[in-house]
Amino acid sequence: MKDLLKKAIAECLGTFVLVFFACGVAALTGGQLVATALAFGLVIVAMAYSIGRISGCHINPAVSLAMLIAKKMSVKEFLVYVCAQLVGGLLGAILLFGIAKMSNLALVGDACNGMVGYTGGDWQVGQIIGTILVEVVLTFIFVYVIFNVTDSKNEGVGKKAGLIIGLTLTLVHLVGIPLTGTSVNPARSIATAVAAAIFNGTTDALAQVFLFIVAPLLGGVLAALVYGLLHKEEKSAE
What is the distance between the alpha carbons of residues 232 and 224, in angstroms, rounded to a whole number? Predict the structure, then answer.
């Protein structure tokens, strides 16, 4: 129980840092492509080498679900991780938006996710499908890389795993920011959507957030299944 509590605290802290700093850069710069992509990647690098040895540095429900599917964690651990991630994300977003509100600082953006091509009004079926496809693909790539670089049999990676994962998230954001703002992380999307609704009174992101919960989770599950399929022979031999 003590070890699980430590892991929960680590996941909460890591997700807090992700949302406050990376989403903070997105909000302060209006989602400037390179700056925001680097911010998300650098946070993952920093947290991977800080809390990775404690909790594995998931800080993302999609990653945790993938690990559950791959039988790398128990259902109890999964539920604790997700709760900790949601709390950490909400704390980070509320602090970020709260500071801006108290200081009368007009943020350039809100760091929220939105459907592909959505500019307001009624939703289009193509926008919904496009958004789901984008998020599934981006999350799949991100989580699949995590599986590979954290595999103990991948001897060429070693201590470089955190750096590789961070750079992969940067790459994912470079593609995804112009499309959906890049979620690949339900905790991050929920946090900014809720904070934007509370402090800015905008509910578009909150209305769309279910897409950024379902699609990343699907992407994580797909990554776990594909990884299991491609490495089935290795596991059998072991």
Answer: 12
Q: How far is CA 125 from the centre of its chain?
A: 25
| pLDDT tier, 120 (very low <50, low <70, confident <90, very high otherwise) | confident
Query: Residue 146 burial by CB count (10 A; 0-12/13-18/19+): exposed, middle or buried?
Result: buried
Residue 182: give its domain's CATH number: 1.20.1080.10
What is the CB-side half-sphere exposure of residue 207 using CA atoms within 13 A? 11
Helices (H), the chain: 2-17, 24-29, 33-55, 61-69, 75-102, 125-149, 161-176, 186-199, 204-208, 211-230, 232-237
Global model pTM greater than 0.85: yes
The alpha-helical segments, DSSP class H, found in 150-210 are 161-176, 186-199, 204-208
Range of the domain at 169: 2-237
Number of domains in the chain: 1
* Cβ neighbours of residue 193 closer than 8 Å, sequence gap 6 or more: 112, 113, 205, 206, 208, 209
Closest by alpha carbon to 208, among 79, 96, 87, 121? Answer: 121
Residues 6+ apart with CB under 8 A from 72: none
Query: How confident is the model over 45-83, as pLDDT tens digits?
Result: 999 999 999 999 999 999 999 999 999 999 999 999 999
Using one digit for the tens of pLDDT, what is the confidence trace for 130-157? 999 999 999 999 999 999 999 888 777 8
- Asked if residues 171 and 25 have their Cβ atoms less than 8 Å apart, the reply is no
Radius of gyration of the chain (CA): 17
